[in-house]
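User: structure tokens for this one?
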Amino acid sequence: MEELFKPRIGIIGGKGRMGRWFERLFKDTGHEVLISDVDTELKGEDLTKECHVIIFALPMEVFPQVVKELGPKIPEESFMTDICSLKEKQVKVMLENSVCEVCGTHPLFGPGEKDLKGLRVALCPSRGQRWYQWWKEFLIENGALVAEFTPQEHDRTMAWVQALNHFILLCLGKSLEEDGINFEHVLKLATPSFERQLNIVARLCLQDPELYATIQLGNPYTKTAVNTFTKHARDLKKILDGGDREGFLKIFKEVQELGPTLLKYCRKGL
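Assistant:
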């Protein structure tokens, strides 16, 4: 890939919030960008003919159908990627319905971010190296923290990072609602860590519930993560109900032992 070569970018679903975000990123870095959506004059098929790089920025519910329609029309020398939150089924459908280079991409942030600096992006290299190296280098040069996974590794991990995390947040929100506790009192007494949790619950009002439902229900590893979590929640509840101080101390110390390992990988521990 010549250093000065700037491929033309096509974003299918380009009028969505993340589609717009990537359109701005590419334009700010000097790329020509074409977008298509349900109400644009340009259609997805036009982009497959005109662009070197095709990015699918689509809801996961319609993603397979659109890829099956447009994937075969993307030339072999081109590049296709997506920005879905799950990867196993998504990468599989891209590979099965195309001959071009393919990579799964998951931006681990939302459209409210200013730029890529310091943000995490997961990549699942799947077919070809030429375009993949360009894409990876582009993201890194613009400040992203890039990590590589197989689609299976990605989805299994996201069952904990997203699906279980959302499960906990929803349970916390419903519990606060049912209790009817005075939120002013809560915030005046909140520790920094609990205030961060409350802020995250509050920000759910800005999110797309359809996307969250798909992440929760569409990940084949969600059930295992949630079942493991609820098992330990039941065990801890039993200890608290029984006033079992020694049982509580035992669990707390076991979790403490995770600390050194987790700190090795957390940003503050790097």
